[in-house]
Batch of 4 targets.
Target 1
Amino acid sequence: MANQTFLDNLNGLPALWLQITSIFAKKTDVPTKTSQLTNDSGYLTTHVDVSGKLDKTGDASNVTNTFTQAGTRANLVSKETLAVSLGKIMKYFTDLKAVAFSGSYADLSNKPTIPTTVAALSDSADYAKKSEIPTDNVDLGNGAGYQTATQVNSAITAKGYQTAAQVESAITSKGYQTSSQVDSKISSALSSVIEWKGNVATATNLPASPNKGHMYNITASSPYGPAGTNVVWNGTEWDPMAGTFSVTAMTADEVIAICQ
């Protein structure tokens, strides 16, 4: 037969009752109103309608606010009340002058006086009118000492000096050449200088209308000379210059033949 246990009046039942009373409460101990709670001041005792409350992300377009203008201008501060912020903004708008809204120069205060004439300048005496500026040397204080170009030329010719045109005319009348005449002579002389033009195979290959001084080498023998003869057009005909020749070393037999 298995062993069994039971609650006796001495130990078991008193221990069980102690556990029941520490875990469960009597009905008379259960609060029936908030005033019996230790934090009853944090609860509403009557119904409050919160259907019109504004969420943090709600639409505040119709929210009204009561505020007064700040006494002095001050910057906005984070986390201050909306009424304080609006009061500061109102102060700034009140202190703005008319020019801030019109943008007109006429609304400025303490405008500087802008001179409209030279006479109104503090240093007006240092400026001259256009009519006071000299346009002729005679208007200068020492203008009488200066000569115009016409006066200088007249004074030179009156002393017997020659102008450049007169000097050139006198030189050419003596048979001397001007620089342009000398250049022309040199250019004409250079145009007749021999100019190498190249090789032709035969005399029949020479150009029909060459320029004076053009020179060609005829590689074959021709009426102008042996193969390799150079010819120059002298303005009327081809003028042979000389033929080409080669130089080779003599052999011993050739030397002996000459000596015998």
Target 2
Amino acid sequence: MSDINYFEFYDLPLSFGIDEQKLKKKFYELSKRFHPDFYVNEDAEKQAEILELSTVNNKAFQVLSDPLKRIEYILSLHHLLADGDKYVLPQDFLMDMMDVNEALMEMEFDHDELKLAELGKQIDDLELVLFDELKQFTDEFDRREAKDAESTLLKIKDIWYRQKYLMRIRESLNKFRG
């Protein structure tokens, strides 16, 4: 059952923008249907099947209800992400990040609250630009306007990796705030 497509499991269209009410409704419906307590009088094989379906239901909801996990999942469904993937970020993005990383390294020696706030604002601005860009491409994909869906998915993949990079930087920045 590990090959189950979560969108098909919930009878939802494959989409980055999901109807959260339908998702929750289906989750609760399947939670009741596959609750192990209702199958205590069944044989071990049936109990194991229900337990697995209950687990799939929980995992599917966990993935589809989180926008970042949903993006990762959709990209994986299209075989655009792989374990150990060594994605090469765009050079211009890496150059921008070099300045941010240098500022972070300076924070280790000079814990300046003003510089910390400026760096936080810079990261916020970068995240907003990425969010707007991501929204544009995910909406385009969902409306099926992309003549070349794979090209749109590759753009989404690039943004997803840049977001992951920024999240790591934000985590480093938050260490200085804590």
Target 3
Amino acid sequence: MERTSYRDMDCPIALSLERVGDWWSILILRDATHGITRFDQFQKSLGISTNSLSRRLGVLVEAGLLERRQYSERPPRYEYVLTESGRAFRPVLIALYAWGNEHFPPEAPNVLLVHKESGDDVEPLLIDRTTGDPLDEEHTSFRPGPSADDRLRALLDRQNGVNA
């Protein structure tokens, strides 16, 4: 089955999925955020085949989320470290963590998100930087942007109660 490319879409979600659109890539970024950098460490953590891991690491490097750095010359060995773009993916991982804990809670969590200084559990909340309001349906809505096609405009206008 051939994979669909989202490269030509104007949607930021679709363009993001073009780079991290499979669960392995997101789990690799999770592990990299937890400090894993080496191929064998990723493989052990994820239980992924070497071919699949090589392919996904290459995609993440090409997308600019990871940087491949040589750490040994003999034999040649590489590590994969988060780039600025990769580190900026952290809030996405935290949002998935919070969503998963709320809707699919494990019997006992294997990772806790805590405040660095106090050690207290952190309850993630997405907020607007300007107003401080939560990014929920009560405070926000999606509106058509400049490149929205007629179908998307009609859909969002209908969602927002705008008469066309």
Target 4
Amino acid sequence: MRVGCKHLTVTRLNGDHGEVAAGELKSTNGTVGWDGAGTLRVRYDGPRDGLDRLSSSLRTRLGERVVPVEALKSIEVSSDPPMLRLVLREHADPLQSITGGYFDALITPYDFPVADRALAESLATDIRTMLVRRDVPATPAVRWLVAPPAAPDRLEGRDATVSVETGRLVFAYKRTARRKKLADGNPWSVPLGDIIDVEWTPNQSRLGTGGFLRISTARTPLERPKPRHDPAAMMTERRTDVDALFFAARLLTRIRP
């Protein structure tokens, strides 16, 4: 049986464990495809009206992401406004786990406005059924379940270049780097195993704040210098904000396999 409208098409399939459903939900925030067997594919359809440059670029670069049902904590359907929301388990998606929270704020990656709540609920019910069948816990994931976007091992910023080399993260400071950044030497490096947190902030011209990529280790002081003075931070160019986000996500998967 097929149930269709311009926002949702559901195909019923007979599986070994009873009837399941495959379907595709299209919304202004992207398309959610469900194969009925345990895998969601989230496609971001590039720029859309009302988004700023960074959010549009991020959607375009993300393209499609594969989300196994094991990555889900729950799936919600709200009424006002009608919305399908995928709630991921903590530590399932490295992009959501980067300190700062800007990824979720920029594009609300797992919220999908819908025109027909009843049809969205039908799809959500089938996904919930699979969550029960797979006995998926709501606890934090013990490993990454959503792959990070492709990212290079080297990233150039305004005051430094960071790179991953032989198990270490290396900061090579430029001439424009503040003197305090050079206190521990140039270049300065830290073993990947010593990194406990990765932070990303995009450039925000309206607020007059610069973007940066910053790491923390067990030795990082509670009162740390501003990113422009911090040896463990690199100020980023506006044009490479998305590259810095993807680099940060890939770095997370290296320090927390």
